Amino acid sequence: MKHLQDVPLAKAYLLLNHGPSTLVTSEHEGVANVMAAAWVMPLDFDPPKLMLVLDRNTWSRHLVEGSGAFVIQLPSRRQAELTVDVGSCNGGELNKFARYDIATARARCVEAPIIEGCLAYLECRVIDEPHNQQRYDLFIAEVVAAYADERAFSNGRWHFPDDQLRTIHYQAGGAFFATGEAFQVAKG
């Protein structure tokens, strides 16, 4: 077919990796961390569940396994630099909250910080699936609380009043794009 080019299989994930970038916060025994994660997806509606790929070599993995909880946050375009920063260093080696002067509050239902200024928050409790966690680094979690900035999400829909209040989507190598304009198609 015209205009198609092969994509190396090792880079095939980039074809799907344009969902919103997320920040994951976790805490265990008074130690907290934040990391960037692009591989988060919804799994079920009722009760709401999601999946998160959490590499076994990350500090966040240690905290999530200890606490059984985490918070997914959707950063805005104004938080793109922060997203790259927290995704480029190891929380086991430094306190990212102090290093990047991150303003936080407490999550509503789980023991973890939330990052102020994000567009949406999903508080999650891990559904223990040792096989998936050990073999695939895949965590399944139930969403126990969800809330969003009403300027960008209301009545069950995303709407972006200005460029700074858009979700961001990580591609690779520090490259992002912002969510585009919303549109609706009438049912036929």
From TrEMBL:
Which controlled-vocabulary keywords does the entry list? Answer: Flavoprotein
Q: Which domain of life is it from?
A: Bacteria
Cofactor(s) needed, names only, are: FMN
**GO MF entries:** FMN binding; oxidoreductase activity, acting on the CH-NH group of donors, NAD or NADP as acceptor
Please state the span of the N-terminal signal peptide per the UniProt entry.
Answer: none
Q: Where does the Flavin reductase like domain lie?
A: 14-160
Quote the InterPro entries the UniProt record gives: Flavin_Rdtase-like_dom, Flavoredoxin, Split_barrel_FMN-bd
Regions crossing the membrane? none
Q: What family classification does the UniProt entry report for this protein? A: Belongs to the flavoredoxin family.
Q: Which PANTHER family match?
A: FLAVOREDOXIN, FLAVOREDOXIN-RELATED-RELATED
Protein name in UniProt: NADH-FMN oxidoreductase RutF, flavin reductase (DIM6/NTAB) family
